[in-house]
Specification:
Strand content: 5-15%
Number of helices: 6
CATH architecture of the largest domain: 2-Layer Sandwich
Number of strands: 7
Radius of gyration: 33 Å
CATH class of the largest domain: Alpha Beta
Structural class: alpha+beta
CATH superfamily of the largest domain: Histidine kinase-like ATPase, C-terminal domain
Number of domains: 2
CATH topology of the largest domain: Heat Shock Protein 90
Order of helices and strands: HHHEHEEHEEHEE
């Protein structure tokens, strides 16, 4: 991140220095043309004074014409200068924003690759260690089951990460073939909650699921979205706090809410968390695992299903994510 900021500062300084140089050159050009226009008018008047000094009427008419031409040229230079100035400022602002956005995106992609590498290595290392332990040591049945269960949990985590990356890339490239059909959202959410309770047995996950809520959609995508929301709630809240999940039906709408009592999201960050690779906080001080594509994927899936997502602050701390779907008639 410091390198990215340094690059942005260098680009900004160089770019605005060149822009200032162009503006100074434009002002100099305007002053030079104005001076030239004035000198031409004065020279024409001097010549007129010599050639038409015995014809006052002709002198007045031609003198008036010279002044009108001078004024017209002056307005012409002003108009051209303003037009060039507007074009320069619009172009400079547009290019500067693109370059700045590219540099920030490049840094975010680097952070993403570092995060993904870490996220991939951790479950692989844990699964490998457990399997090596099973292979080298003679353990009782209970210990074996515990190691196998942990390995399977890490394999599921690895599978979820790969699915997030793959589906995110496919949706962005519009290469994902969505097959929407009628299905039971209540069962899908209940299954997600059940899996998280098994995976995070030390966490308190409360739920209230209204049965038989049917919607049209792609079950796999909505499963990914639900998992990402629940996973985020677990990641960004203390282990001794409650995760509260509700699915209710009201006025032909189904609303899924995931509430946590964690660190919360600052108001100025609420609109940014949906950006690809974006993560709250500073890269140097952030310790929470993540890749920055989970909420981006959630927003993309919700948009594809014509669902709306809102974020509100929980009391006393934390966040509440609410996703609203249209219920199938």
């Amino acid at each position: 991140m410091p390198n990215s900021k340094r690059q942005i500062k260098i680009v900004a300084f160089t770019y605005w220095f060149l822009l200032l140089y162009v503006l100074v050159a434009l002002i100099w050009w305007f002053i030079a043309l104005q001076e030239q226009n004035k000198q031409i008018a004065e020279l024409q008047i001097q010549q007129l004074s010599v050639s038409a000094k015995n014809n006052p009427v002709f002198y007045d008419n031609l003198n008036k014409h010279i002044h009108e031409t001078q004024v017209r040229k002056q307005y012409q230079y002003i108009g051209e200068g303003v037009a060039f100035l507007v074009v320069i400022f619009v172009g400079a602002t547009f290019v500067y924003r693109i370059v700045r956005r590219r540099l920030k995106l490049s840094q975010q992609q680097k952070n993403f690759m570092m995060a993904v590498t870490h996220e991939l290595k951790t479950p692989i290392a844990v699964a490998k260690l457990n399997l090596e332990t099973l292979l080298k040591r003679k353990l009782d049945s209970q210990q074996q089951q515990k190691l196998i269960g942990t390995a399977l949990q890490e394999a599921d985590r690895l599978n979820d990460l790969c699915s997030n990356i793959l589906v995110s890339a496919q949706l962005e490239a519009k290469a994902y073939n969505t097959h929407k059909n009628l299905f039971n959202l209540s069962i899908l959410v209940a299954e997600s909650i059940k899996n998280f309770k098994v995976q995070f047995s030390n966490r308190i996950i409360q739920s209230n699921i209204t049965p038989e809520i049917n919607i049209y959609g792609e079950p796999l995508l909505l499963q990914l979205m639900t998992n990402n929301f629940i996973d985020n709630a677990i990641k960004y809240s203390p282990s001794n706090t409650i995760i509260d999940i509700n699915l209710v039906k009201r006025d032909k709408k189904a609303t899924l809410t995931i509430a946590d009592y964690g660190i919360g999201i600052p108001d100025n960050e609420k609109s940014k968390i949906w950006e690809k690779f974006y993560r709250i906080g500073n890269e140097n001080t952030r310790h929470t695992k993540g890749t920055g594509i989970g909420l981006y994927l959630c927003r993309t899936i919700a948009k594809d299903h014509h669902a709306t997502i809102t974020i509100t602050n929980n009391t006393p701390t934390g966040s509440i994510f609410a996703i609203q779907f249209a219920i199938a008639e």
